[in-house]
Amino acid sequence: MAEEIEKSMPAEQSLMDKISEKIHHHDSSSDSEYEKPDSPSAVKAKIYRLFGREKPVHKVLGGGKPADVFLWRDKKLSAAVLGVATAIWVLFELVEYHLLSLLCHVSILALGGLFLWSNAHTFIKKSPPQIPEIHVPEEPFLLIASSLRNELNQGFVILRSIALGRDLKKFLMIVVGLWIISVVGNWCNFLTLVYICFVLLHTVPMMYEKHEDKVDPFAEKAFKELHKHYLVFDEKVVSKIPIASLKANLG
Question: For this UniProt entry, which segments traverse the membrane (predicted)?
Fold first, then answer.
């Protein structure tokens, strides 16, 4: 009996040794899997993108037809939209035409032409004009009003937070932004400013999408330099402003 036990012990030890070797081999293989270098897709995801965006430019612009127009996916439609905007700007800014006069003149021509056509179709042997009934739907206006209300409420919350002295960084950014807008407003009127923004929307996103691999590294370096300057400004100026005492006095 003792001899049988002694014979069975080496077999059990060899079995345990095999199991431990398999476990050790599995652990080492799992560790090697974790130590594998990142896949090309993971490395690509870590590339810096302008303003920290994670979506393509088309999605950032909202997608759909407006994004196609801004990115010149439909060249004829984009050129037509830009041409109409340019014609409007030339008409109101250079020719100094007035919006009310334009609307009245266009309405007179349209109504006069349709009126003459409706009464003279028997003489010219053509069918009368088919003028559809127009009904303005309620849902799009409610959606626009709701979205505008949400944006306004969010803007008021941010302005209130800044006015209460809770975020000095946002306060400085808004002051600088308003000052830049005031300077630009002295250079041109509102219509010209809107037209410039419209032209920029039709050119900058399209050019950026074509050259984003070159623009993003340059933008990364620029933002790093700006961040360094901001840290210096924060250390020398912002940190010395007694925010806590101001909040205590306001409270």
Answer: 77-92, 98-117, 171-201
Query: Are 219 and 50 spatial neighbours (Cβ–Cβ below 8 Å)?
Result: yes
Residue among 180, 181, 159 nearest 170 (CA): 159
Supply the DSSP symbol for 35: T
Average pLDDT along the chain: 76
Which tens digit of pLDDT belongs to each residue from 147-171?
889 989 988 988 888 888 777 778 8
Q: Which of 41, 47, 53, 87 is nearest to 195 (CA)?
A: 87
pLDDT at 39: 47
Q: Where are the alpha helices (DSSP H) in 35-138?
A: 40-45, 57-60, 64-70, 75-89, 99-120
CB within 8 Å of 20: residues ≥ 6 apart: none
Query: What is the reported pTM?
Result: 0.56
In sign, the C-alpha dihedral spanning 76, 77, 78, 81 is: positive
HSE-up (13 A, CA, CB side) for residue 219: 14
**Residue 60 CB partners (closer than 8 Å, separation 6+):** 53
**Do the Cβ atoms of 204 and 212 come closer than 8 Å?**
no
Q: 95-117, pLDDT tens digit by residue?
A: 888 888 888 999 999 999 888 88
Q: Tell me: pLDDT of 193 over 60.
A: yes
